[in-house]
């Protein structure tokens, strides 16, 4: 089937022009990636951004999948000899998969059912007579279908079989299914109860022991929590509206008279609903709610991941990294400016060994020997104790001491990637290296770890894993290409996410680099085995070569525009090198003079911006952060303390903040700002530095409640208590006023103005 029918639909849904959708679809079909299209084909797409290009891609794929299913259904019905022009038209007009499957249901090959068994007994004609609800003698008519050999020994056998057939007709009625689907979504409720006897085991699901809420408003995290509780056999979960409402809809559709046949149809309707339609609709609605919950959870995950990947990098500095510990000691490594491992040792500054002097001497020696500029300490076990040790051994003040989130570092250290990078070192060394490199460049290091292991998601193991992977891959690719990749130092894993490459070509680039030395120009990248023109076109603009012969090779300007920039420099009487280094000259470029059929103002403005600050890192500048001295464990916390913290994870109900006590605190949505907010992302981002007030310390459950409000205890002050009667009076007056206005509006509606 043709895509032409889809372009208009997608354009309407996204609020863009049909021409933009067609152009984008053509580029995608030609093998172009989302980052490439949104960055280097703005004239073609009408400047659609990454989100819009990805939406065109995903929606077009959905509609193409729908088309394939339509073709398969039409073929199946045709092979049964039951295809009519009207039926084919209904199939082709179906806009969703559920509507399509409803149309196909009566023709779908099915297992032996009560209805098919009744048909085998010859009761279908009786079912038709009853369903027509004409005035017949039901008892006499039913007697005509008695047949001992076929198992129809009584009138009730005949009527029961006929009802089974009618129940299946009702179940297969597309219009009835459509109405019930709407009812289940609009009026359905999640009803969760604890399985008797499991109260103690299921304590973490206590909120859902006796819980009820509408399907259409239930938030993602509660849907996924209830489903997980059900999966772990702690909760019983039902989904659906009131049965009477559903049966009433069916009866209105199928009961046309008030005779004895109609009573049989009513019985069939009730049976058809409870035995067939209700379980089917419940399954559908649960899948619908799960899909919606998955989409919300994946959106939260990907937004958190983007913020984490784009955290401020320290940059190319010599770093000493420490993976802290108690009994087994602290693994210490020194890394060069490009992240290369220079030295590794183990120190024991903490309990039980407390070898302070030896540890101090070794750290000072490593710092001096390797010209260390910063120290990265993992935020796991013994982190605060190790931080205190480092800060008190008399290192030069200019050496930064930074706590680094080590979530997922252990996953990396045991991975094939780590073994390939450091085959001669154990897990502890690899983990320390990862901590140090995270400080230098979070993006370059975190791409080596499965995003699900980084710890910024919500119920990530419960959502659709395929959809999650696709979304996370899109996010990582967007971040990698948005920042740009230094081709001469990037790992294979980082290169894999560059537009147009992938694992195989990334490995080929690394192999070529190892065999021939650093790339001297982007043009040389074409010499990499199996890297053809298409891959080069997609990747070149996102690959950087610092200090190369051509200054443009370190910028985001695509090589296909080099000739244009040469012309600009020539017209201004300077070299390209001079143009790039002189921002005043760049600002004087008359952009409109260079507009042509291939290049428009959007691309020219991007070029101008890039020439002004070639190769700049779009991430924010690194700022040093320190936890509160003396607050190292939960027992050190007191309600009312104001402490510095770092946002580690954002959910729909709030944000988790690391305040340096080995247990993140929760800032509930209601405690995130002085004003009302609906979404935590309105005020915080992952890796953001905040000042949080301790509101609650629950040692047994290891829970910390925090607030970001400027004065979270204001509601408990004496002045607020004094104002309470006044506020109550004001609220009462407002309620009376609103009530009078409502009544006045009703009277106007009834009698006119």
What features would you describe in this structure?
There is one protein chain. With 753 residues, this protein is of the alpha/beta class. Among the domains are: 76 residues, Arc Repressor Mutant, subunit A (Orthogonal Bundle); 192 residues, Tex N-terminal region-like (Orthogonal Bundle); 124 residues, Nucleotidyltransferase, domain 5, CATH 3.30.420; 82 residues, Nucleic acid-binding proteins (OB fold (Dihydrolipoamide Acetyltransferase, E2P), Beta Barrel), CATH 2.40.50.140; 35 residues. Helices cover 50% and strands 11% of the residues. The strands form four sheets. It has a five-stranded mixed β-sheet, with helices on both faces. A five-stranded mixed β-barrel has the order 11-12-13-15-14. Helix 1 crosses helix 5. One of its GO terms (biological process) is translation. It holds the Pfam family HHH_3.
Spell out the key features of this protein.
single chain, 753 residues, alpha/beta, Arc Repressor Mutant, subunit A, 30 helices, 50% helix
Strand content: 5-15%
| CATH third-tier fold name of the domain at 114-305 | Tex N-terminal region-like
Spatial shape: globular
CATH class designation of the domain at 114-305:
Mainly Alpha
The CATH architecture of the domain at 114-305 comes to Orthogonal Bundle
Largest sheet: 5 strands, mixed
Percent helix: 40-55%
CATH superfamily of the domain at 114-305: Tex N-terminal region-like
How would you write the strand order of the largest sheet? 6-5-4-7-8
Distance between the termini: 57 Å
Overall residue-averaged pLDDT value:
90
Low-pLDDT segments: 716-741, 749-753
Count of discrete alpha- or pi-helical segments spanning 4 or more residues: 30
Q: Helix/strand-derived class?
A: alpha/beta
Q: Got a strand count?
A: 15
Our Rg estimate from Cα atoms comes to 34 Å
InterPro entries: HHH_9, NA-bd_OB-fold, Ribos_protein_bS1-like, RNaseH-like_sf, RuvA_2-like, S1_domain, S1_Tex, Tex-like_central_region
GO cellular component, one term: cytoplasm
Domain S1 motif: 640-709
Region (Disordered): 710-753
């Amino acid at each position: 089937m043709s895509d032409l029918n889809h372009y208009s639909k997608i354009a309407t849904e996204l609020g863009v022009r049909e021409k933009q959708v067609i152009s984008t679809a053509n580029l995608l079909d030609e093998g172009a990636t989302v980052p490439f299209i949104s960055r280097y084909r703005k004239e073609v797409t009408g400047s659609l951004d990454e989100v819009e290009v990805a939406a065109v891609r995903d929606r077009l794929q959905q509609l193409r999948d729908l088309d394939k299913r339509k073709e398969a259904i039409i073929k199946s019905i045709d092979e049964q000899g039951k295809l009519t022009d009207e039926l084919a038209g209904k199939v082709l007009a179906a806009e969703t998969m559920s509507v399509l499957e409803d149309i196909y249901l009566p023709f779908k090959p099915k297992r032996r059912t009560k209805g098919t068994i009744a048909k085998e007994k010859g009761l279908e004609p009786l079912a038709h007579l009853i369903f027509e609800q004409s005035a017949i003698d039901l008892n006499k008519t039913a007697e005509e279908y008695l047949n001992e050999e076929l198992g129809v020994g009584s009138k009730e056998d005949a009527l029961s079989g006929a009802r089974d057939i009618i129940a299946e007709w009702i179940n297969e009625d597309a219009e009835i299914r459509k109405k019930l689907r709407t009812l289940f979504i609009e009026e359905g409720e999640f009803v969760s109860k604890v399985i008797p006897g499991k109260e103690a085991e299921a304590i973490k699901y206590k909120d859902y022991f006796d819980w009820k809420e509408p399907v259409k408003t239930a938030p993602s995290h509660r849907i996924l929590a209830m489903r997980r509780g059900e999966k772990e056999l702690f909760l019983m979960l039902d989904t659906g509206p009131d049965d009477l409402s559903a049966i009433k809809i069916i009866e209105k559709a199928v009961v046309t008279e008030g005779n004895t046949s109609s009573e049989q149809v009513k019985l069939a309707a009730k049976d058809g609903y409870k035995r067939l339609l209700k379980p089917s609709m419940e399954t559908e609605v649960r899948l619908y709610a799960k899909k919606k919950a998955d989409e919300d959870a994946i959106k939260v995950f990907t937004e958190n991941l983007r913020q984490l990947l784009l955290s401020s990098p320290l940059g190319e500095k010599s770093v000493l990294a420490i993976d802290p510990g108690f009994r087994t000691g602290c693994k210490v490594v020194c890394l060069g400016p490009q992240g290369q491992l220079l030295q590794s040792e183990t120190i024991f500054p903490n309990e039980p060994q407390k070898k302070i002097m030896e540890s101090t001497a070794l750290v000072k020696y490593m710092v001096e020997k390797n010209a260390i500029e910063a120290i990265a300490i993992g935020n796991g076990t013994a982190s605060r104790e190790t931080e205190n040790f480092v800060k008190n051994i008399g290192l030069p003040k200019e050496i930064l001491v930074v706590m680094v989130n080590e979530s997922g570092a252990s996953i990396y250290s045991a991975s094939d990637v780590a073994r390939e990078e450091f085959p001669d070192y154990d897990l502890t060394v690899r983990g320390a290296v990862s901590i140090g490199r995270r400080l230098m460049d979070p993006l370059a290091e975190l791409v080596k770890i499965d995003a699900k292991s980084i710890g910024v998601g919500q119920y990530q193991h419960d959502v659709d894993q395929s959809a999650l992977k696709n979304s996370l891959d899109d996010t990582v690719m967007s971040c990698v290409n948005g920042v740009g990749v230094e081709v001469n130092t990037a790992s294979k894993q980082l290169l894999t996410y560059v537009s147009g490459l992938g694992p195989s070509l990334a490995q080929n680039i690394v192999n070529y680099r190892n065999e021939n030395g650093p790339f001297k120009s982007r043009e040389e990248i074409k010499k990499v085995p199996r890297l053809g023109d298409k891959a080069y076109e997609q990747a070149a603009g996102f690959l950087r070569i610092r200090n190369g012969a051509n200054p443009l090779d370190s910028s985001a300007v695509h090589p296909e525009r080099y000739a244009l920039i040469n012309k600009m420099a020539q017209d201004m009487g300077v070299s390209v090198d001079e143009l790039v280094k002189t921002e005043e000259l760049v600002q004087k470029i008359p952009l409109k003079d260079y507009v042509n059929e291939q290049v428009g103002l959007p691309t020219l403005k991007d070029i101008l911006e890039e020439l002004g600050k070639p190769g700049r890192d779009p991430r924010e500048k690194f700022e040093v952060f320190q936890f509160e001295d003396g607050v190292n464990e939960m027992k050190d916390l007191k309600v009312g303390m104001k402490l510095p913290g770092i946002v580690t994870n954002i959910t729909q109900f709030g944000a988790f903040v690391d305040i340096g006590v080995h247990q993140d605190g929760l800032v509930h949505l209601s405690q995130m700002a002085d004003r009302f907010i609906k979404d935590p992302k309105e005020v915080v981002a992952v890796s953001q530095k905040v000042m949080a007030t301790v509101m609650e310390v629950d040692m047994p459950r290891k829970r910390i409640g925090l607030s970001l409000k400027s004065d979270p205890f204001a509601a408990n002050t004496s002045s607020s208590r004094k104002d309470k009667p006044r506020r109550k009076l004001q609220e009462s007056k407002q309620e009376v006023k609103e009530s009078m206005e409502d009544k006045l509006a009703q009277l106007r509606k009834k009698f006119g103005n």
